[in-house]
Write a structure and sequence with these properties.
The structure holds 2 protein chains of 2 kinds.
Chain A (H helix, E strand, L loop, with lengths): L4 E3 L2 E4 L5 E6 L6 E7 L5 E8 L2 E5 L7 E4 L6 E5 L8 E8 L12 E2 L3 E5 L1
Parallel strand pairs in A: 2-11
Antiparallel strand pairs in A: 1-3, 3-8, 4-5, 4-9, 5-6, 7-8, 9-10, 9-11
Chain B lengths: L2 E3 L4 E5 L4 E3 L2 E3 L5 E8 L6 E7 L7 E2 L2 E6 L4 E6 L8 E9 L9 E3 L3 E6 L1
Parallel strand pairs in B: 2-12
Antiparallel strand pairs in B: 1-4, 3-9, 5-6, 5-10, 7-8, 8-9, 10-11, 10-12
Classes of the chains: A mainly beta, B mainly beta.
Chain lengths: ~120, ~120
């Protein structure tokens, strides 16, 4: 069964450093998402990406964050200068588009990358 | 704006019994999707069940069923014949429909921790 993969599973970094979190969505999916979950809290939407551009972003997704799909398979989230409060689990998700029934599509999540900022 | 509310931070259920996890939502969109995800202690997000706002019948997936009451704006998850492996955090989520301005992002509730007792 196709699945979303994410690497690394755990990333430890120093405050102020840049990190890149990588995701490989399911191959025939067209919409991609990043979510964040601070330990013990709910999952929060960060950004959605379609047709090689950001389609929506949340207030959390400030200028320190960027996304790209460099090669048609990988989907990356970059945090330019990490802060302590960026420590969280980051999930990538993707959807296949089913025409007019797109809202019925289920977002499949990757296993997550746990980011720890020291 | 869309909002999901899960009022039960923690629930206990005896093995083999049924349990209902509550979820209420608020939206002004006429069309939307409602989802339940399971998050075990390992951290991944596992899709359980989906309900579309125009679906006439309540969704069912094996031991999971969704008690959808549109007028009350509730989408409760019912787990029948609970198993020890059902112990996890459960999240209710809502998506908007795909359109010119909607991107299908998921808005999550705070989650309910379910513990199944032997």
């Amino acid at each position: 069964e196709p699945e979303v993969t994410q690497t690394p599973s755990h990333q430890v970094t120093q405050m102020g450093q840049e990190v890149i979190l990588r995701c490989v969505p399911i191959s025939n999916h067209l919409y991609f998402y990043w979510y964040r979950q601070i330990l013990g809290q709910k999952v929060e939407f960060l950004v959605s990406f379609y047709n090689n551009e950001i389609s929506e972003k949340s207030e959390i997704f400030d200028d320190q964050f960027s996304v790209e799909r460099p090669d048609g398979s990988n989907f990356t989230l970059k945090i330019r200068s990490t802060k302590l409060e960026d420590s969280a689990m980051y999930f990538c998700a993707s959807i296949g588009l089913a025409g007019a029934q797109a809202s019925t599509d289920t977002q499949y999540f990757g296993p997550g990358t746990r980011l720890t900022v020291l | 704006a869309q909002k999901i509310t899960q009022t039960q931070p923690g629930m206990f259920v005896q093995e083999k019994e049924a349990v209902t996890l509550d979820c209420t939502y608020d939206t002004s969109d006429p069309s939307y999707g409602l989802f339940w995800y399971k998050q075990p202690s390992s951290g991944e997000m596992i899709f359980l069940i989906y309900q579309g706002s125009y679906d006439q019948q309540n969704a069912t997936e094996g031991r999971y069923s969704l008690n959808f009451q549109k007028a009350r704006k509730s989408a409760n998850l019912v787990i029948s014949a609970s198993q020890l492996g059902d112990s996890a955090m459960y999240f209710c989520a809502m998506s908007d429909i795909f359109g010119s301005s909607n991107t299908g992002k998921l808005i999550f509730g705070q989650g309910t921790t379910l513990q199944v007792k032997p």
